[in-house]
Amino acid sequence: MSATIIDGKAIAVRVRADVAREARAFSERTGRPPGLATVLVGEDPGSAVYVGAKQRACAEVGMAAFDKRLPADAPFLQVAELLQRLNRDPAVSGVLLQLPVPPHLDGPELTGLIEAAKDVDGLTPLNAGLLALGRPGLRPCTPSGVMELLARVDVELEGAEAVVVGRSNLFGKPMAQLLLQENATVTVCHSRTRDLPGVCARADVLIAAVGRPRMVRGEFVKEGAVVIDVGVNRLTPEEAGNKSGLVGDVDYAAALERASAITPVPGGVGPMTIAMLLRNTLVAARRQAGIEDDA
Ligand code: NAP
C-alpha cells in the first residue's frame, strides 16, 4: 500500500480563505476587524520568526495585528501588566504569549493571566477545563489543526482506536480530549509507556508528537492506519534527505508503505497551526461581539 499524502498546506490555504471571508463579514457588521495581539519577550530568533509569521498571516486575512515586544530581562510584573492591558483593549480579540518565555519568567503562570475569552492559544486553565468537560471554549491550535485535517480527509473517528504519542499540555493532552469528543477510543503514550511499538500498532489513527526524529518506525504502523506526524525536528540536509532539513517524529518512507494516509513534514500539520490561530481569533471576536457561531 502507498498512502494518500494529506496536504496540510493546501487545506490550510482553504481554512485561511474561509477565515478571510468571514473576517470581512465581521468587519462590515461591527465596523472593525478582529484583532490579534502577539507578545514576544526577548529576542529568541526562532520565536521571532513564528511571531512574524503570525503577524503576516493576520494581515493577509484582513485582521488587525498588534506586535508587542518586551526585552529579555522584562520582569514578571511588566509582562503581566501588558497582558492585562491587552485583556481590556476592545480592539484586541485575541492575545497570544509566544512560548517559551525567558527562564526567569513562568510561562504557564503568565499564560493564565490572559482573559479566557481572548485565549486564542487555548492554553489557560479555564479553556483547558472547558475542553476536558466537553463544553465550548477556545481550543489549542495544533490539535485543532489535526482534527481539521482528519475531518477534511473524511477519517472516521467514531469507535476508532486512536493512539497519541506525547502527553504535553500544549499538544498531547488536548489532542486526546478532542479525539475522545469524537468518540474515538484513545490511548496516550509517553516516555514510560512499556510497549510503545505494540500500542502504536493497534492504532487506526496514530498521532506522534514527541520531538524525536523518526522514532515512530514502520513496524509501529498498522496496515491501513492514518498517520499524523506533529514532530518538527531540524537535521542537517544530508541527514534529513530533504531540502528543508526538517523531519517529523515518524519514519515517513517506511510509514508511507503501510499507512492509508499520512501527513508529510514539512507541509502537513505545521501550516494548520497558524490557520487555526486565525480561526480562533475570529471565533473570539464573534463571541465578544455577541455574534453566534457554531464553533
Ligand atoms: P514536549 O512537551 O517535549 O512533549 C514530548 C512528549 O513526548 C512527552 O509527553 C514525552 O513523555 C514524550 N516522549 C519523549 N520521549 C518519548 C519516548 N521515547 N517514547 C514515548 N514518548 C516519549 O513536546 P510538544 O510540545 O508536545 O511537541 C512535540 C513535538 O511536536 C515537537 O517536535 C514539536 O516541535 C512539535 N510541535 C509542532 C507543532 C506544529 O505546529 N507543527 C506544534 C506543537 C508541537 P513524558 O511526558 O513522559 O516526558
Describe this structure in words.
With 295 residues, the chain is α/β, with parallel strands linked by helices. Helix content is 41%, strand content 15%. It is built from eleven helices and eleven strands. It has helices at 8-30, 45-60, 76-88, 107-111, 125-133, 141-152, 172-181, 196-200, 237-240, 252-256, 270-288; strands at residues 4-5, 35-41, 64-70, 94-97, 161-165, 185-189, 205-208, 226-229, 233-234, 246-247, 261-262. It has a six-stranded parallel β-sheet with strand order 1-11-8-7-5-6. Strands 3-2-4 form a three-stranded parallel β-sheet, with helices on both faces. Strand 2, helix 2 (45-60) and strand 3 form a beta-alpha-beta unit. Helix 1 packs parallel to helix 11 (270-288). The longest helix is centred in the N-terminal third of the chain and has 23 residues, at 8-30. The radius of gyration is 19 Å and the shape is globular. The two termini are 36 Å apart. The model has no long low-confidence stretch (mean pLDDT 96). Bound molecules: NADP nicotinamide-adenine-dinucleotide phosphate. Residues 142, 165-168, 170-172, 189-193, 196, 209-212, 230-233, 269-270, 273 line the site of NADP nicotinamide-adenine-dinucleotide phosphate (NAP).
